[in-house]
TrEMBL record:
Organism of this sequence: Noviherbaspirillum album
Function of the molecule: Converts cobyric acid to cobinamide by the addition of aminopropanol on the F carboxylic group.
InterPro entries: Cobalamin_biosynth_CobD/CbiB
Pathway(s) per entry: Cofactor biosynthesis; adenosylcobalamin biosynthesis
Family according to the record: Belongs to the CobD/CbiB family.
Membrane-crossing residue ranges in chain numbering: 61-81, 88-107, 161-183, 296-314
Protein name as catalogued: Cobalamin biosynthesis protein CobD
Keyword annotations from UniProtKB, A to Z: Cell membrane, Cobalamin biosynthesis, Membrane, Transmembrane, Transmembrane helix
Entry keyword annotation includes Acyltransferase: no
Superkingdom of origin organism: Bacteria
Cited PANTHER family: COBALAMIN BIOSYNTHESIS PROTEIN CBIB
Length: 321
């Protein structure tokens, strides 16, 4: 738990960060994670050179350390200094850092326009909007393909951009949320299984897997509790292991089952059609299901803020030695 703060304070700071995100959305001029991505790109250009082999893994470790640790350490030191100067200043900075790291409002702002375009029959616009948030090709995608891609992305980012950030904020405050999002960003940039990143990106992929292991399963549990629980549990149990990612599998299979949708299957990447394992059961995704998926993520956020708040109340009422 966040050092020096009560459980009640952590719950209030978490709520404050989520409220800031909801009211303000993403920073329009300069988003810290966008700036970090540029820095990480420059580091990769310098570190990811030379032949294959063990040295490629080592360069990936060095690149990860150079990109992440200085920012996390400096942020932690700044927060400590601010807290020493005035406790309220330190608390405000923790909430502000959570605001910069979490992506609940951003998820809504990226996904719901896709649903609106599909509902209005604007297939070209829906393809363009979807291409901004997924890596698959959308030039020949139909309505169902786009709805499926948006729902899958919403469910996965419900963990990566929202709940995982909240979890690590509860564990280690602003620096914890920052560490998680930086690691997640590097995995998105470097965690590919291709010639360029297979070895260099190993550190980024494995670190993200480790940091995501508990949050992903709590997210999957939340989807199960807040949707069609029986179907979500069955899909999680039978489908998660077949998915390439050890953490995306539980999250997306449980989420698809909770919504009663059949996701996964074929998608086009770099001009080639790939068949991925099935996710969920039921009917294919439609435009309205994008909003349903986002509301599931929103309810998950509220659920865990409420859980933390209830734990804080119980903790205060318990007798302490």
């Amino acid at each position: 738990m966040l050092s020096g703060l009560t459980l009640s304070a952590v719950a209030l700071l978490m709520l404050a960060g989520v409220v800031l995100d909801w009211l303000l959305g993403e920073p329009r001029r300069f988003h810290p994670l966008v700036g970090f991505g540029r820095i990480a790109g420059l580091i990769e250009q310098q570190c990811n050179r030379g032949g294959a082999g063990v040295s490629s893994y080592l360069r990936g470790v060095i690149g990860w350390v150079l990109a992440v640790l200085p920012l996390v350490v400096l942020t932690g030191a700044a927060l400590h200094a601010a807290t020493q100067a005035h406790s309220l200043l330190g608390m405000a900075l923790h909430a502000l850092l959570l605001y910069f790291c979490i992506g609940l409002r951003s998820l809504r702002d990226h996904m719901l326009p896709i649903a609106a375009a599909l509902a209005a029959g604007q297939l070209g616009l829906a393809r363009e909007l979807t291409s901004r948030i997924v890596s698959r090709d959308t030039a020949r995608a139909n309505d169902s393909d786009l709805a499926k891609a948006a729902v899958e992305s919403t469910l996965e980012n419900g963990n990566d951009a929202v709940f995982g950030t909240l979890f690590w904020f509860a564990v280690a405050g602003g620096p914890g949320a920052l560490l998680f999002r930086l690691a997640n960003t590097l995995d998105a940039m470097w965690g590919y299984r291709n010639a360029r990143f297979l070895r260099y990106g190993w550190m980024a992929a494995r670190t993200d897997d480790a940091l995501n292991w508990i949050p992903a399963r709590l997210t999957a549990l939340s989807y199960m509790l807040l949707g069609d629980g029986r179907r979500a549990r069955q899909c999680w149990r039978t489908q998660a292991a077949a998915w390439p990612s050890p953490n995306a599998g539980p999250v997306m299979s449980s989420g698809a089952g909770a919504l009663g949708l059949a996701l996964g299957g074929t998608a086009e990447y770099d001009g080639a059609v790939e068949t991925r394992p099935p996710l969920g059961t039921g009917r294919p995704a439609e435009a309205d299901d994008i909003g349903r998926a986002w509301r599931l993520v929103g309810r998950t956020t509220l659920l865990w803020i409420a859980v933390l708040g209830c734990l804080a109340i119980l903790n205060e009422r318990m007798p302490h030695a």
